[in-house]
């Protein structure tokens, strides 16, 4: 009983002591600048018709070359490295990989990520969710 009274008194003192905090508005932060270029590392999941999942890690290099590591999950995982080039114009990134046998288009959004395009429009799955490759401004190590 003594412990309960002592604990109650301490908690009341704590709450009363903390109630005199002054709330000042936070200072305005400068807006975050999104780089205008598309060079960098991207990662995400793209649609796949004959597999469970297709994970893509993509490097767009400043010399116009692209390196894509594609992991396709079926009953087992197969990893393939695709190399090629890309062109960026009017918020659209067009990739040509593996001697033009693979062609992908992406639309760059306002925060720098790339949304997969199919038939000239941003792809959405059955639930209406876009397939987006997220841009990482600092490449992480695996």
Provide a descriptive summary of the structure in words.
With 142 residues, this protein is mostly beta strands. It has 1 helix and 9 strands, in the order αβββββββββ. The chain has one helix at residues 2-18; strands spanning 40-46, 53-60, 65-73, 77-89, 92-97, 102-108, 114-118, 121-122, 132-136. The protein has an 8-stranded antiparallel β-barrel. A hairpin with a 6-residue loop joins strand 1 (40-46) and strand 2. The relative contact order is 0.15. The model has no long low-confidence stretch (mean pLDDT 86).
Count of DSSP-assigned helices: 1
Mean pLDDT: 86
Number of strands: 9
Into which percent range does the helicity of residues fall? Answer: 10-25%
Task: Write down the secondary-structure element order.
Answer: HEEEEEEEEE
Q: State Rg.
A: 25 Å
Largest beta-sheet details: 8 strands, antiparallel, barrel
Instruction: Using the alpha-carbon principal axes, give the shape.
Output: elongated
Percent of residues in beta strands: 35-45%
Spatial ordering of strands, largest sheet? 1-2-3-4-5-6-7-9
Class computed from helices, strands and strand pairing: mainly beta
Separation of the first and last Cα atoms: 56 Å
Q: Could you write a compact summary of the structure shown?
A:
With 142 residues, this protein is mainly beta. The protein has one helix at residues 2-18; strands at 40-46, 53-60, 65-73, 77-89, 92-97, 102-108, 114-118, 121-122, 132-136.
What layout of secondary structure does this protein have?
Layout: H1 2-18, E1 40-46, E2 53-60, E3 65-73, E4 77-89, E5 92-97, E6 102-108, E7 114-118, E8 121-122, E9 132-136
Antiparallel strand pairs: 1-2, 1-9, 2-3, 3-4, 4-5, 5-6, 6-7, 7-8, 7-9
């Amino acid at each position: 009983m003594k412990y309960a009274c002592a604990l109650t008194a301490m908690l009341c003192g704590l709450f009363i002591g903390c109630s005199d905090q002054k709330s000042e508005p936070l200072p305005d932060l400068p807006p975050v600048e999104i780089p205008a270029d598309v060079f960098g590392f991207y990662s995400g999941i793209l649609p796949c018709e004959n597999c469970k999942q297709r994970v893509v890690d993509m490097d767009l290099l400043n010399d116009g070359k692209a390196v894509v590591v594609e992991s396709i999950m079926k009953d087992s995982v197969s990893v393939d490295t695709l190399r090629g080039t890309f062109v960026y114009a009017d918020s659209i990134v067009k990739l040509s990989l593996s001697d033009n046998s693979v062609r992908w288009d992406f639309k760059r959004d306002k925060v720098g990520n790339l949304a997969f395009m199919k038939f000239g429009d941003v792809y959405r799955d059955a639930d209406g969710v876009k397939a987006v490759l997220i841009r990482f401004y600092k490449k992480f190590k695996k």
